[in-house]
Amino acid sequence: MQADTVSPIHHIAKHQGDNPAYKYEGKTVIYQQLSQQVMAVAQQLSAQGLQRGDRLACISHNCPQLATLYWACVDSGILFCPISPRFAPQQIIELMQTHSYHSYWLRADNEVNSTLTQALNHQKQFESVTLDFTRQSKQSVPALEPHKAVNAILTSGSSGTPKAAAHSLANHIASATGSSKLITLAAEDSWLLSLPLFHIGGLAILNRCALAGACVVFEDKQLSLAEQLTRDKVSHLSLVSAQLQQLLNVDGESDTQSNGLSHVKAMLLGGGAISADLLAELAKRNIRAYTSYGMTEMGSQITTGSARTDGSSGTLLSGRELKVLDGEIWVKGECLFLGYLTKDGFNLPLDKDGWFYTKDLGHFDDNGNLCIDGRADNMFISGGENIQPEEIENALKLHPLISDAIVFPVVDAKFGNLPAAILKLSNSSANQPLETELTEFLADKIARFKRPRRYYPWPDVSSAGIKVIRKQVIEAVKR
User: What is the pLDDT of residues 330-340, one digit of tens each?
Assistant: First the structure.
């Protein structure tokens, strides 16, 4: 990617301006219109004092305004820093303070918790940004510096405190280019935005579609997934195997679900191994299914391959390098992020040869496919959300009756995993707090999706030292 280039949004607007840029609730916006809206938002950001290099917290669920704001930040050199509204208000404030997000945009709608709005209004160190997304501008398209930071995506670290991983547009273009070598995406195609834009997987969909001139389809919560696939003629989607099973209508419940897949060309599947029955059903419909291994720090996909029953994650995509050393995965390449945000810049933790340690464990099978064996730390994924056990454990231990806690995943058909907690009481004669009491206790300390769905009493296990052996305690509970 050359210096002094333009955003892919404006490039497509100039050469294929009538292409659908996105669909929202059945309505279509073309690239020419999106381009003009993006430039108008960029003008408003500048008028409100935001400058190149500033960090803008963007607090919203997926919506066209959030996507438009991302591209406006790309044009302006402002860091697009999306934050999930599902975090507790105090957590959002602490994240903004930690990462020096001095300005914020909060989508004003019924989904926004009034408590969050009030909490932010009381914080004098933050400036609220107000934007009119109906405006359009026909000013000249700005030139970009593709290797400068354009966004920061929050990602859980081993401490449970989210770090903010910064990427350049060049990172995203390299990621999208490598993905397209295997998962073809053309201008006539569309990708369902089923992943949040505050996760790298969601942002990657925006960038893939922009590079190809394809259409982003926002989820319509008023419709079932099958109904939306039918109405919007979606060609590409990302989903987990439980959703796929519903769509394939294995039990023959209705014809609508089967029809919903009639336009689908490719799907990127999450959630590990895929059953032979599901793969056979996809083959009947000539739908290409892929699984992948990826991470925030590498701009999403690293390896990708055809979905297999063994749960392997395919081979390396272009623009990436990967090695397995003593069972641990290291990566580098054009997709590698700029570093974690610090107060004044970035921190990029690499070894002397430029490799980044992923904390993931894996190996290559006889066919050269990468197989993931777990994580070197304790994080797990629940419904697409990164869950760091230590964060939940620390919150639980604030309860006066709890002296220790261990959080671990339990398998769930819908979410892949759900958090469960093992509790050690400070008074052995006390009764364990009820689940309803603990849910209320955690409400203002962690995001709702992180709350444990099941609680276990601490098992009677021996320990050789003063340090609690997590694995030993968890295994004792699972027996």
Answer: 999 999 999 99
Q: What's the rounded Cα separation, in Å, for the pair 301 and 320?
A: 9
Burial class (CB in 10 A: 0-12, 13-18, 19+), 304: buried
The per-residue pLDDT for range 273-300, each reduced to its tens digit, is 677 888 888 888 899 999 999 999 999 9
pLDDT at 249: 63
End-to-end CA distance of the chain: 54
Q: Is the pTM of this model over 0.70?
A: yes
**Cα separation values, 95 from 66, 87, 99, 236, 454, Å:** 19, 10, 6, 33, 28
- Kindly indicate the confidence band of residue 258, based on its pLDDT and cuts at 50, 70 and 90: low
pLDDT of residue 88 exceeding 90, the answer is no
